[in-house]
Design brief:
alpha+beta; 2,3-Dihydroxybiphenyl 1,2-Dioxygenase, domain 1; 2 domains; eight-stranded mixed β-sheet; 7 helices
Amino acid sequence: MSILGEKGLLSFGVTDPAAASAFFRNIGFHSVGEAGFAERLNPAGSAFHAACREVSERIQNSSPMQIDNSPPVAAGRFNSPEEASQDEDSPAQDAGSLNLFDGSSVLQCSRSDVPGVELVYFSSRIRETCDHLQKQGLRPGCGGDIRFQASGGMGVRIRPRDCEPSVIPMGLTLHQLPVDGVLNTAYYPNPFCGILVAFICPVEDLQESISCWEKIGFLLLETHRGPYPHAVLSDGIHSIGLHETGDINGCGLLYAAPDMKMRLARLEAKAGLDIRACTQAGRRTYDASIMGPEGIWIYLTGF
């Protein structure tokens, strides 16, 4: 279990949730609970889904987190209780929010005057989490939600379980697939994008960022050095990609599929999508990107 919470989702704070929702619907997402949602819950059968859940639990149980004895984290800062109480337009705000799912990513689009994105967790152990992060050298405000800026500029918010949406489905990511399922496209839940690899963000120092994320419970799943250094970490709830490269335009969702060329053709046939080919020469971390409203990026890669 992640020290940060038992469930989670990725929250986009946007000035127009309806426009953001329309963008995600156009690339394979459904609103949680609507027609088509059930098909995204278990795209490959219960036995396969159980195998993926087993991999996810293994990631959580393998976390390097040491609750009592972890050394301090060098980067990151919590909002003080005063700052938290003043932040009424945060990305995790419930009013006017829309929850979306494509079988891989669980997203929330919330109205906010200041666009942004947060990894949101829902925890029944807010006090224990607060105490642990204080031992990391951080200064959490524990009078409600816990919020801080993690390495790479990623916002993290931990909320009590009574703030949790009624349904948070389990999404499948690339690193949860059993080895014999990686090349089977039937296991890739989003018909246009494929399967989530990670939510990626640029960083200045890859190794330092890896260390900071490991200190808050993330397990290093893969790392690549030059020419484009990047890594993927997970705590079993969220997967994070750290990219020490100018190859990405900004934070966004990275999707992968073995038949990505065919999927890109389907996306290019749709109206209203700003699809951009990657112009980086040589080895690169994605093949194309889609720019959504208010700085939302989707990256697509084949293999």
